[in-house]
Design a protein that fits this description.
The protein is α/β, with parallel strands linked by helices. Helices cover 39% and strands 16% of the residues. Bound molecules: pyridoxal-5'-phosphate (PLP).
Amino acid sequence: MAAPNRHPLCCLPTPLHPLRRLSRSLGAEIWIKRDDLTGFAGGGNKGRKLEYLAGSLLESGAHTMVVCGALQSNFVRCAGALAATLGIRCVAVVMVLPFEGEVGRPAGHPPQTGGNVELDRILSVELEVIPDGPWEALFEAASDAAQRERELGRSVFEIPIGGSSPLGAHGFVLAGEEVSEEFDHIVVPTSSGSTHAGLAWHFHGSQTQVHGIACDPEPDLLDDVLRLCSGLDELHGIGKQIRANDLRLHPDWVGPGYGIPSELGQTALRRLAREEGVFLDPIYSAKAMSGLVGLAERGELAGRVLFWHTGGFATVCAPGAGDTG
Ligand SMILES: Cc1ncc(COP(=O)(O)O)c(C=O)c1O
């Protein structure tokens, strides 16, 4: 297969270092992969996906990018920064709080100003805010927006939620190559699935088990990750044929729902800040760290553990973000 084109955005490799105080207090050997420091537009996991999505966007020659997400989406912020640097438009269809239809809207109000919303405005992202509803309604509205743009004669590049296509996940297959130490476990937050899928695909067949901590109560999340893994088989022309049993996706640390901080997450956020001087975000990485602590306490993380910090600092800067507990 021809290797996907990379449009360099990130400062790679990101640092990887031990968390000595946390390791002592938890009685386990814990390291951290600092993808909060990927560098592009505030860092985080999105830059790695966008490097390959941008390669494909540039090939397409499109002048309008259409994305979607929650109003405080980290992905929209990073996609907006990419669009700005390429001199193209970024149309972002957003809901304050999309939710899983079967589960319903969680109690809680994500901040509607500050944080990523403010950064989106600085970047001239064209935010189309639609009423809260299920994820499917958000995806439909984004596809309608792309269609409207096409009808106006514009060439459009649509990016799925969170940059989670096989091409986005490819960024995390390559991220796996940066892990120079051997680990028994990698713990990562999972929402749209491509961070988890890329790492699980890379480490499949090795001693390293990748644990996704679900940040979203979506029942189809495992299927989403599996679909991305089979998309990676196709993209790479290698049939790893990852099955549900090969994946570890833990639903126990979602808390009240997607987009709403959890008490255990906020405790983990404070713990990492106070023990290591590392900040987490309340929606993804804090919940993933609460999962790491929980799995370690249950004795399910024997050996060396790597926490994959996916960034998201800007949500912490939103007024009212993460002030539970
Ligand atoms: C900071 C942060 N961490 C983790 C995730 C989850 O990654 P993924 O969408 O690839 O599952 C996201 C986005 O959804 C995010 O913004």
